[in-house]
Amino acid sequence: MRFTDAGEFKKETGHEVNGIWFPRVTRILEIKSKPALQNFFKEVGSYQGAEDIKNKSAEEGSLLHQTVQGVLTGREMVIPESIRPAVEKFIEFNQDQKIVIYPEFIEKPIWSGKYRYAGTVDALACIGGKFGVLDIKTSTGFYPEYNLQTSAYVSALQEFEIKKVIGLPQNIETRWILRIDQKRICDKCGASLREKGGRRKIRPGKNNKILCLEESHEWRDTTGEVELREFPYLYKDFRAFVAAKILWEWENDYWLKKVGYLK
Questions:
Q1: Do the beta carbons of residue 114 and residue 158 sit within 8 Å?
Q2: Mind listing the pLDDT tens digit for each residue in 105-158?
Q3: How many CB atoms are closer than 10 A to CB 224?
């Protein structure tokens, strides 16, 4: 991305914490190659078309994200019909899982004074007696950058200064990624249809090499899918995040010197 001046660079890539500017975790991780995203741009065929789909998908994902957070805090939520299958599936899932989140730590800005980065955690939660970072994704799968992102959050929250400033009730023990999505399944061939961002994406069934013709699918009603995975081990993921940060700093050396982040 090109920047017109240092002010735009700071606004687009970081946050200020107590008057000190830090780059954002998610912007740092944009340096990592994302083959799935590259394939998506190829499939769409035009940059503008892909951007439109991506932006609309982000809006829909944010709506699902916010609704699930509201459900977890016990608020009375009006569930939009467009995401009802996913939300209802999550409510059913959580009857057994019993995720407890802390309202004061939803969308909580955090930072690392030691490694000099900032970010925003989706939530801090208690699951199965453990206290940790809960990151909510509205995607078709789990991607490696999720591990790097959450490792950065956990590492920051383990620093003494931030624990004291934000008033953590106890030490962070672990992290989870909660994936929520929805799709339709073809009764004939087992293919799945995902509609997001104005785009229809059909994937073949896992155990079926035969795919119906477009007009011959027999789609069931939309159903939600929910997965919760714990990633208790931090060391390798955080090392990879730090390496990504070094590369990102190298890539943005000019602007980082302009804003005084690098000497």
A1: no
A2: 999 999 999 999 999 999 999 999 999 999 999 998 899 999 999 999 999 999
A3: 20
Report how far residue 53's alpha carbon sits from residue 59's, in angstroms, rounded to the nearest whole number: 10
The neighbouring-strand residues paired with 121 are 108
Query: How much is the pLDDT for 93?
Result: 95
How far apart CA 37 and CA 51 sit, in angstroms, is: 11
CA distance 74 to 66: 13
| Pairwise CA distance, residues 72 & 23, whole Å | 30
pTM, two decimal places: 0.91
